[in-house]
């Protein structure tokens, strides 16, 4: 790893060692390290999933009750293999558990639709064959291709997996779906439920005593939570787009709430009021429906009143980094079970895409990471295609076969770090950041780059600070509604509206300050975290700063590679948790984001802020440029609580380019970037 912690923290927190190939012995049939498809092994994994299974059918019991230690009943679906007559197989098998809050009724609907004799086949065929790349419908097909990428098998009922000799258990989280109790949103009682579910499942006659955890999004997070408790029955985890820092990823990024949270909370709260039609009559006869209704009435809209109160007054602790969140973040460093993680550069949980892998304290091979160039809803889109990773259902089966059944199928030799390099292709290697990148500093200068006349200001990005003091003024606008920020906060949904929402940032740049390098002359990798140090001022007592770093093509298309934001009052830096490069440069700023650590923002007085940017991996192709865009806001990706909005009212923000207090981007890049700057004498 290139990363280092602050010197004061080095003795108390071990650094992550560089990733190594985990096993010295050769494995028959595997292509050399660097093949993201899995080579010959990948072909075998796919053939095992798509070919004839051990059992021809499954039996689905959608009305299973699991009693927790406090008496609360959780509802579950149990899927077991069956013979051709539909009789349940009595042989015990490993169990795969999925615990999520999205109501098993919805999961049942997806399962039945995807396995309907005519409809299911038509949906899968369309997902594989329809590709509108390069057209106005490209965003739509990016979403529809998730079906052929296999993520719905990880999220819901995976019949093929069960037919190969597994049992699957899908559980409604406490207080959601048909389960009783109060929804705690990943709280301590819910985490205890996960451990008790594992205990219950492992003791059933249909389970051989070994368990795996799988899930997408929320169920990936609670899989990581359960794994950090180290239950002895747990042998492997397959987590798609999980998270280990809810605060900085999505809840209050840069000290600002995200529009995603109230929308998501409303959706889950609405779904928890929907009874499961597969057993609603039995629930009424047993009295379960009454208990369920009473629990819903006690908490009709979990967390929404407190969220609204916090947004209006800033007096609720959940508007800040608070112990409320500390108990909800998985302690990834405690996990011992082999863990496969999947993420995306523009996922809701972008920082966790690589962070979970880095914090897993186990050798590569027992931990694996795949990161694609997409969002939350389109994860797995394109998987299984030429030069791409195998489908997610294929990888899930291979992972569990290896660690739950002991099959020597080569999955531990895959990767271990597989990434879709933005601007490039899928690669598979040994570490993140990738080898060959070094700390690089690029200064913001007011001199024109002659590439962004559409922006509020067209500046340059180069190896030297500005020659004299200048102030660049900027005001908030609404162009963030039509941007990659908007698509990220909607989990990818708005990509169907066209390339301005997921590829070309020039519309949003009309309201921003742009700083652009000369074109590179050779392919130049960028890999890892980034930090943007700015010298800024405002006429008010609060300011909002949103930042993107972009790849600018020769035709002018500006594609966001990564982003970040910070409210000026939250600029206090926790140096013990910040990340530094080998030369001491700040690469990732960790802000306190707490009420007591807020700092005053003086009017019209320049202050220094460090905006941490989501780690990424990209390549600038010859003729491309790197650009930093700076905005006074990006709504609804970053919202401002009402008290801070009052402090910032009528504000005029400005970036102060001062040679004595320079503004600059620190990143890890190949030497092609420095060479390009030297060649043009910037």
Relative helix content: 25-40%
Portion in beta strands? 15-25%
Number of helices: 21
Q: What is the tally of beta strands?
A: 24
Class of secondary structure makeup: alpha/beta
Unreliable parts: 1-32
Radius of gyration: 25 Å
Distance between the termini: 30 Å
Shape: globular
Mean pLDDT: 92
**Major pleated sheet:** 11 strands, mixed
Summarize the topology.
Layout: E1 4-5, H1 39-50, E2 57-67, E3 73-82, E4 93-100, H2 104-114, H3 119-129, H4 138-144, H5 146-149, H6 151-155, H7 159-163, E5 167-172, H8 188-202, E6 207-216, H9 218-227, E7 234-240, H10 246-251, H11 260-271, H12 280-286, H13 288-298, H14 304-313, H15 323-326, E8 339-344, H16 350-359, E9 367-372, H17 392-405, E10 417-420, E11 426-429, E12 438-445, E13 457-462, E14 470-474, H18 484-489, H19 506-509, E15 513-516, E16 524-538, E17 544-552, E18 558-567, E19 579-580, E20 586-588, E21 607-620, E22 625-631, H20 642-647, E23 653-657, E24 664-669, H21 671-679
Parallel strand pairs: 4-5, 4-6, 6-7, 7-8, 8-9, 9-10, 13-15
Antiparallel strand pairs: 1-19, 2-3, 3-5, 10-11, 12-13, 12-24, 14-23, 15-22, 16-21, 16-23, 16-24, 17-18, 17-22, 19-20
Helix pairs in contact: 1-17, 8-9
């Amino acid at each position: 790893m290139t990363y280092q912690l602050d010197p004061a923290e080095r003795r108390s927190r071990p650094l992550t060692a560089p990733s190594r190939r985990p096993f010295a012995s050769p494995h028959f049939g595997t292509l050399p390290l660097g093949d993201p498809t899995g080579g010959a092994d990948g072909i075998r994994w796919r053939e095992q999933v798509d070919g004839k299974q051990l059992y021809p059918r499954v039996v689905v019991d959608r009305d299973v009750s699991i009693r927790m230690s406090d008496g609360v009943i959780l509802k579950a679906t149990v899927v077991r293999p069956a013979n051709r007559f539909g009789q349940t197989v009595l042989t015990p098998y490993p169990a795969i558990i999925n615990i999520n809050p999205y109501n098993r009724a919805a999961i049942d609907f997806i399962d039945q639709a995807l396995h309907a004799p005519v409809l299911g086949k038509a949906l899968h065929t369309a997902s594989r064959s329809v590709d509108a790349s390069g057209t106005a419908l490209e965003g739509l097909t990016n979403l529809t291709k998730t079906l052929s990428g296999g993520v719905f098998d990880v999220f819901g009922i995976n019949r093929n997996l069960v037919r190969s000799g597994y049992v699957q258990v899908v559980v409604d989280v406490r207080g959601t779906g048909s389960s009783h109790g109060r929804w705690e949103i990943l709280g301590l009682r819910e985490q205890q439920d996960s451990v008790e579910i594992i205990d219950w499942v492992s003791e059933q006659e249909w389970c051989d005593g070994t368990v795996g955890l799988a899930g997408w999004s929320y169920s990936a997070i609670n899989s990581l939570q359960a794994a950090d408790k180290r239950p002895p029955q747990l042998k492997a985890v397959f987590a798609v787009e999980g998270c280990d820092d809810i605060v900085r990823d999505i809840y209050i990024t840069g000290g600002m709430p995200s529009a995603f949270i109230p929308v998501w909370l409303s959706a889950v709260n609405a779904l928890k009021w929907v009874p499961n039609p597969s057993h609603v009559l039995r629930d009424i006869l047993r009295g379960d429906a009454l208990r369920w209704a009473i629990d819903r009435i006690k908490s009709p809209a979990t967390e929404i009143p407190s969220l609204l109160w916090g947004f209006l007054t800033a007096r609720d602790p959940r508007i800040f980094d608070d112990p409320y969140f500390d108990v909800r973040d998985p302690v990834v460093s405690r996990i011992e079970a082999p863990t496969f993680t999947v993420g995306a550069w523009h996922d809701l949980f972008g920082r966790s895409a690589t962070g979970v892998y880095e914090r897993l304290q186990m050798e590569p091979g027992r931990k694996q990471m795949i990161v694609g160039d997409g969002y939350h809803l389109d994860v797995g889109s394109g998987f299984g295609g030429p030069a791409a990773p195998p489908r997610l259902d294929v990888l899930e089966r291979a992972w569990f076969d290896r660690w739950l059944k002991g099959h020597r199928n080569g999955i531990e030799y895959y990767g271990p770090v597989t990434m879709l390099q933005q601007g490039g292709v899928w690669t598979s290697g040994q570490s993140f950041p990738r080898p060959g990148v070094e700390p690089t500093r690029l200064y913001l200068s007011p001199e024109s780059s002659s590439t962004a006349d559409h922006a509020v200001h067209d500046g340059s990005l180069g190896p030297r600070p500005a020659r004299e003091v200048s102030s660049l003024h900027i005001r908030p606008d609404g162009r963030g509604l039509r941007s990659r920020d908007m698509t990220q906060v909607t989990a990818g949904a708005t990509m169907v509206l066209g390339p301005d929402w997921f590829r070309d940032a020039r519309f949003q740049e009309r309201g921003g300050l742009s700083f652009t390098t000369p074109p590179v002359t050779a392919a130049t990798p960028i890999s890892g975290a980034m930090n943007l140090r700015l010298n800024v001022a405002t006429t008010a007592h609060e300011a909002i700063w949103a930042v993107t770093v972009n790849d600018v093509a020769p035709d002018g298309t500006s594609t966001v590679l990564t982003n970040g934001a910070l409210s000026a009052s939250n600029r206090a830096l926790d140096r013990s948790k910040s990340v530094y490069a080998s030369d001491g440069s700040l690469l990732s700023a960790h802000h306190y984001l707490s009420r007591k650590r807020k700092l005053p923002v003086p009017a019209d007085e320049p202050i220094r802020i460090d905006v941490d940017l989501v780690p990424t991996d990209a390549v600038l192709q010859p003729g491309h440029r790197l650009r930093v865009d700076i905005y006074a806001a990006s709504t609804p990706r970053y919202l401002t609580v009402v008290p801070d909005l009052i402090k910032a009212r009528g504000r005029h923000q400005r970036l102060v380019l001062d040679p004595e207090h320079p503004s600059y981007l620190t990143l890890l890049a190949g030497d092609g970037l420095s060479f390009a700057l030297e060649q043009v004498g910037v």
